[in-house]
Amino acid sequence: MQGAAMSETEILAVVRRFEWRRKVGLGMSLLGVVVAGALAVQFVPGDPDHFSRTEFLALGAAAAAFIACGLILMRLGRIPADARTPRIAMLRAERLQGRRHIALLLMPASLGSMLPGAIRAAGHVADGRLVTHIDLFTVAAFTAISLLFALMIAGRGLDSWAKPVLDDELSRELRGRALAVGYAVVLAGVAALFVVALVSRTLAVELIPVVAALGVAGPALRLFLLERAAGGGGEA
Amino acid sequence: MIGYRLENRLKQARAELGLTQTELALRVGVSRKTINTVENGVFTPSTTLALALAAAFERPVEALFYLSRGEG
Fold first, then answer.
1. Mean pLDDT across the stretch A23-30?
2. pLDDT tens digits, one per residue of A153-201
3. Which residue of A has its CA nearest to B41?
4. What count of other Cβ atoms lies within 10 Å of the Cβ of residue A54?
5. CA-to-CA distance for A135 and A120, rounded, in angstroms?
6. How many contiguous H segments (helices) and E segments (strands) does chain A have?
7. Which is higher by pLDDT, A58 or A49?
């Protein structure tokens, strides 16, 4: 039922509640995917240690419940029609941009926290040791998150309403400059790995996740700095 | 181009029409930040954006943008 026309503040409050619900839903779904991923690596042969049948069923049920609840939460509610005006879309997108800046800052920290596990798993592979399920999960998670961050930096997957702000000419220019940093870092890193491999193949394999992490963290920080420099001053 | 710098009269034109950066951004379909950086000379707009801005003000593009001798 559509009542009287809402004020801009009321519309933004409704939108905020909707976005919060979507965020919680997305978080729950991702948690479910992580649990499902932990179960999926159990099927990869090699490591003799497996979850027990009870653990497997319990975690499977938890993963399904998290994903289902998350998806339902994300589907609940609709953005009011009044919120689809260009002005509200711009206000929403500018707020989203603020949150993306925080995300850009958190990316290097997040990858850094996963790096020891990824290096350890790479070391196991390089030494020809048994690759455990934990190694597989760590590598899969590190790779998926690195790719997800790279796609976020590249501006993929933006909602159409956010594109005029987050995918306009300036944003594309800044992203291009930031991604050029990533390209240079990865290129230099791969060249360095090649040289290191001549001395120690194990060390070269262990350093692969470091190069990948730097290739994502570098552009994230560069984009944050460029966006911050471009955002200074101005008037609403 | 070496020796030239792109200047603009965007802020004056906007003030004449009483438009805020957000209102101009909405007219052109870019972010407020883009308008701000173009006005401040931090960002050089593409031909498309320069023409879109000129169309928004109903002026020729040369009335908004001009070249000056500088570090360009």
1. 93
2. 998 888 877 877 788 889 999 999 999 999 999 999 999 999 999 999 9
3. A230
4. 8
5. 8
6. 7, 0
7. A58
pLDDT at residue B51, rounded to an integer: 96
User: Choosing among A87, A92, A169, A174, which should be mutated to test the B contact, i.e. which has the most B CBs within 10 A?
Assistant: A169
Q: Give the Cα-Cα-Cα angle B63, B64, B65 (nearest 5 degrees).
A: 105
Which residues of chain B neighbour A166 with C-beta distances below 8 Å?
31
Positive or negative: CA dihedral A161, A166, A170, A171: negative
Q: Exposure of A33 by Cβ count < 10 A (0-12 exposed, 13-18 middle, 19+ buried)?
A: middle
Q: What is the pLDDT of residue A161?
A: 77
How many CA atoms are closer than 13 Å to the CA of B41, on its beta-carbon side? 13
Q: What pLDDT is recorded for position B39?
A: 93
Residue whose token pair is 């997957």: A157
Contact A194, A104 (CB under 8 A): no
pLDDT of B1 higher than 70: no
Chain A contact for B12 (CB, 8 A cutoff): no
Distance between CA atoms of residues A145 and A152, nearest Å: 10
The encoded tokens of residue A61 equal: 């049920």
Nearest Cα of chain A lies from the Cα of B13 at a distance, in angstroms, of 15
Q: Measuring CA to CA, which residue among A138, A145, A133, A132 is closest to residue A117?
A: A138
Does A54 or A162 have the greater pLDDT score? A54
Q: Could you tell me the pTM of the whole model?
A: 0.81
What's the CA angle centered on A85, arms A161 and A156, to 5 degrees? 5
CB A31 within 8 A of CB A66: yes
